[in-house]
Specification:
Layout (H helix, E strand, L loop, with lengths): L4 E2 L6 E11 L2 E10 L6 H6 L8 E6 L9 H8 L4 E6 L22 H11 L12 E7 L1 H12 L6 E5 L11 H14 L12 H8 L23 H16 L7 E6 L21 H8 L6 E6 L11 H16 L6
Parallel strand pairs: 4-5, 4-6, 6-7, 7-8, 8-9
Antiparallel strand pairs: 1-2, 2-3, 3-5
């Protein structure tokens, strides 16, 4: 029997622990969080009314130094009839255990195990194909990179892929090929060597500055620290390998929607500009890289958006949700 228990988000959210065996730091788990749509009213059932996404499952994967906490994002989907699931990957958020190196991985393919366990927990079978329900993959930042690579390696499993500021290219794209061999060598010799901390906490401050009191967020700072978690050589080598694979071109068979801020800002000192731009990625480089994901790609540029589009100030966030709604259910829906 599947043992769903109440989640830390409360309300309609539940969680399921996924056993992934052990590594050299002990037992490894991932955590699947779900929110299910409310039952249809008796009147809707009587007149045969259906919500537009009643046959859809959504699987969300978070970014680096992050975990799932965005209630409104889940409710966007459940209000339209979809079942929403979010995966806290191994050694992140709900899945982080004492003695583990937060977020550490040396090969992004290892997350195939986490995703397979999540799909099985969703009732789709570990290959994701044992269901008549459509599957939407939704990834933010590093989660967008992970899901893009996974979708390309698993053609025809996902029916749509939605990427929220996916980390598809290194912030210094022009030097990626030059530094990759050095990072790879360091990863082989000293995989746990820590890179200098370059995050001054401005991205977290920007999110706090634009919080909407009518749409509050509660964040566990142990799981999502003000400054990002330590970056290790082994992990960075895995990321650069993923970037190289994207640069060579992927073959995602499903339609892809990429949501990006309209502009980037360099977070070397605090300014109000950081509350209206992506201060993590170079969005023009990501837009170009997005065109290598597959044959059907839509790029949406949201003016005034932060790196996490759905945590932006009110106007930009509402614009992002309107664009998302149009893409999944409106006249531009392609799946």
């Amino acid at each position: 029997m599947v043992d769903w228990t109440p989640d830390v988000l409360g309300d309609e959210f539940e969680q399921l622990t996924l056993d992934l065996g052990e590594d050299d730091q002990g037992p490894v788990v991932a955590t699947l969080v779900r929110a299910l749509p409310a039952p249809s009213s008796w009147w809707d059932r009587l007149r045969g009314a259906r919500r537009p996404l009643e046959n859809v499952d959504v699987l969300y994967v978070h970014g680096w130094s992050d975990y799932f906490f965005q209630k409104r994002l889940a409710r966007f989907w459940t209000s339209r009839g979809a079942r929403f699931f979010a995966l806290d990957l191994r050694k992140y958020g709900r899945s982080l255990r004492d003695g583990q190196t937060p977020g550490y991985i040396t090969d992004l393919r290892t997350y195939d195990e986490d995703i397979a366990a999540a799909l099985d927990g969703m009732g789709r079978g570990d290959d994701g194909e044992h269901s008549t329900r459509k599957l939407v993959l939704l990834g933010h930042s590093t989660g967008g990179l992970t899901l893009s690579l996974w979708a390309s390696r698993h053609p025809d499993v996902a029916d749509a892929v939605i990427l929220n500021s996916p980390w598809l290219e290194f912030q210094f794209a022009s030097v990626r090929s030059a530094i990759a061999p050095m990072v790879e060598l360091t990863a082989r010799l000293r995989p746990l060597e820590v890179a200098p901390q370059v995050d001054l906490g401005f991205y977290t401050r920007a999110q706090q500055e634009v919080v909407d009191p009518d749409d509050p967020m509660e964040v566990n700072l142990k799981w999502r620290p003000v400054q990002t978690m330590a970056v290790y050589a082994g992990w960075l080598s895995a990321i650069l390998s993923g970037h190289n694979t994207v640069a060579a071109g992927l073959s995602i068979s499903a339609p892809v929607c990429v949501l990006l801020s309209a502009r980037s800002a360099t977070p070397t000192r605090w300014s109000d500009e950081l509350t209206r731009a992506d201060s993590v990625l170079v969005v023009d480089d990501i837009a170009r890289a997005s065109l290598k994901l597959g044959s059907t790609v839509t790029v949406e540029r949201v003016d005034g958006a932060l790196h996490d589009i759905f945590l932006s100030r009110h106007d930009a966030r509402e614009d992002a949700y309107r664009r998302l709604a149009t893409w999944v259910t409106g006249w531009r829906a392609t799946w």
